[in-house]
Amino acid sequence: MSSKGSDLTKRKESVLTPRIEQETLLQELKDKIQRSAFDMRKFLEDEQTILVLIKTTEMISELRTSALSPKNYFELYSFLLNELRNVESYLDEQVKTGLSAQELYKVVQFTGQVIPRLYLLITAGSVLINTEEVPIKDILQDLNKMCRGIQHPTRGIFLRYYLTQMVKDKLPDITTQNSEMHGTVEDSINFIISNFIEMNKLWIRMQHQTPFGNLSEIGKKYVHTMLGKERTELGMLVGTNLSRLAQLEGVTVEIYSQNVLPLILHQIIDCNDKIAQEYLFVVMIQAFPDEFHLETLETLLKSLEELNPNVDIKEILQELMQRLVIYFKTNRAAENQEHKIFTTFSDSISRISQKKVLKQTDLLIILRCLLQIGFSLNLNRIDYVDYVFQSAFRLLNNEIIKQDDSNVVTQMIQEVIQSYNNVIVLIEIESFPHLTNLLPLAEQRKIANNLIENVLKSQTIIEEIEKLQRFFNLIQILLNHPINQNDLQFDSDFQKEQSALCKVIHFFYSDDIEKYFLIFQLLIKELNGTGKVRMKNYIFPLIFSGLKLAQKMRENERNKSEFSISFNQLFDSISTILENLINFFPEVAFKLFLQTAQAANKCRLEKVAYEMMLKAITIYGDVFSLRETQFKMLFSIISTLFTLNYIGNEYFSFLAVQCAIHSKKLVQPIHQAKAICCCSRFFYLQDSLIPTNSLENSQNQKRSIQFHDDKKLVGCLSKAIRIASSSIEFPVSLESLFEILDVCLIFFETQKTNINIEYINTLIELIIQVKEKNQSQPQVLFPQNSLVFINQMIRKFIKKKKGEKKEIYLEINFQKLKKTFN
């Protein structure tokens, strides 16, 4: 070896070398290995075995350094490993051509330096195993024993890692011939576990190998942290043993539970090192099959209780439980012992939480994993969900809930909601509302919205009053939480959740009238006190729910089904709700009173229909009589009144007169004329055939409204004519007069009113006068549809009539009217 190389190995051995010096040193060592490797490859080509071994010894000698950090040492080892594999291949070929593997194994033991000697011994041992000249068991025991000569943590752990790599494909297994020469699976197990134990001891000692010198406390802490991180990364070298052990086909569940697991757990527990216990437990869980863990579940969980108090139990349990969740979903072998499995986990978690100081968030994460275990075992066991929720509630009750805790609980609850596509199941979980109420308002709103979305998506009907009450308890936050209308996000988020809540109300009903009425009463109770902002949204689905109930009651009445609820009870409840709404949203109340009147009419409740119409008219008179929308609102009343075909003459007459009175009070004359003309139709209604529901004997029943008042009819039309001809500007007045003429012709055709030919011709003369009066205004465009309208009347009342009727209509001055507009 050169003096320069000798100086490198004699440097002060410290892992506290600055980064630049570490990089420089690493590169120098790599250069030395590369130079020796170059010479070695030349000797390989020349098949000079002794010189090959000498140059290999020079390369391996660089691994004697203690000046490199574990991370840089690993890089140096990896750089050298490729060259060592070339040497192994060369020696293997030489043995096949006559070189004695046993002599080679003896020769390399005369190497002067310990590190090169052991690396060469492992390489020669690997070649010797291939020859099958010596029992594999003896070679493995010898190599394992020889490696104990290196007790330096870094050098020793990499040496044993090299041993693991060189023999991993040569270990006896169930597929190999079971003989003294070839060895048995037990030999492989003993070798791997022994190597694992020794490597773990070296790995743990690695944390104590660094002198801190004159560093400050902050410097020592920093270096300790960095070394701890590098040491953790080297855990993979130790874990390789467990991975190889799990790959042995001869390791059955019985062998694992009786011989393998006890030894592994004893070493992991006995080392009492936080980093080692955390890493090796996770590697063991990942390496061995899930069936093995399921068979040894109690042993595995009990061992967690004996670990170092600082070990992160949460990570270990989470890894184990998540693996088993996947296993249970794809393998139903655990069905017969599902309760035992869940109980084993729950009892273990309970014991661990009592013995060890765990963070609240960690415990909640563990409970969430337990919940997933319950789902994967049997989704129908809601008692598993209830147990987890109760445990979380006991943990959080009377505690200040941190944001991390809140997030975990919210995720837990959301997983439950998504897993059960039926809100009926969810409301059976007793501890659901208790746990939800512990969360911040924002999280409660999120969960409530998820519940509503669940109902809408699954279209679940809730028809039991007790279950509906529980549902409202779960979404109560949406009904009473404070509203900040100044928040920019308020409008979109609030309206979305209110819209969803309005939709979900339609899923609360029953075919049983008694139950449906109780549901409606509960809806009133829960929604009626939610404030005016929310009530404006809820009022429509709430009222229509009541009207839907009225329709069902009517159907049951036709079928002669008995029920104790009266129509008056129902409509009194609806009326009370709407009356409370008048002061806040009169327009909404107005529209719903009209809707309710129509519903009452369909149920043949003439008094109820009359009262609802009267209330709508009262609202109009008190609120809308001076507004721009008065004409539109009044026409809503008029059109609704026309649909009430089961209301009595007395009630109808009063309501018709009220409509006519309010028509005269409209602000704009054009609106007055239109409304009064329309009201004239109230005072002569033809007989009508009212089609009944198909449930009712499938026959039509004739119902005649005996209401005919010529005086009021003619009075309305005359009033409309006066307003149209004198108070409305041309040409709008002409259009209005044509509309009145059309109505007069309808009444004239019945031949039962005082609207006669003289009355109609007088109106026609008035139309002609209005037109001729404005003939001198060239800038005025006469209505283009006037002539079209006249021609339509001629075709309807003259050309299509026959006999006496045609003669009567010929007396009407249609031709004179037509000539005026040609």
TrEMBL record:
Location comes to: Membrane
> Its membrane topology, per UniProt?
Peripheral membrane protein
Gene3D superfamilies given in the database record:
Vacuolar protein sorting-associated protein 35, helical subcomplex Vps35-C (1.25.40.660)
Main location as per UniProt: membrane
Q: Which GO terms describe its cellular component?
A: cytosol; late endosome; retromer, cargo-selective complex
What function does the entry list?
Answer: Plays a role in vesicular protein sorting.
What InterPro entries would the database entry show? Vps35 (IPR005378), Vps35_C (IPR042491)
A single GO BP? intracellular protein transport
Tell me the protein's name: Vacuolar protein sorting-associated protein 35
| PANTHER family cross-referenced by the UniProt entry | VACUOLAR PROTEIN SORTING-ASSOCIATED PROTEIN 35, VACUOLAR SORTING PROTEIN 35
Keyword 4Fe-4S, does the record have it? no
Q: Does the record carry Transport as a key word? A: yes
Pfam families, per this entry?
Vps35
Q: Which family does it belong to?
A: Belongs to the VPS35 family.
Top-level taxonomic group: Eukaryota
Originating organism: Anaeramoeba ignava (Anaerobic marine amoeba)
Keyword annotations of the record: Membrane, Protein transport, Transport
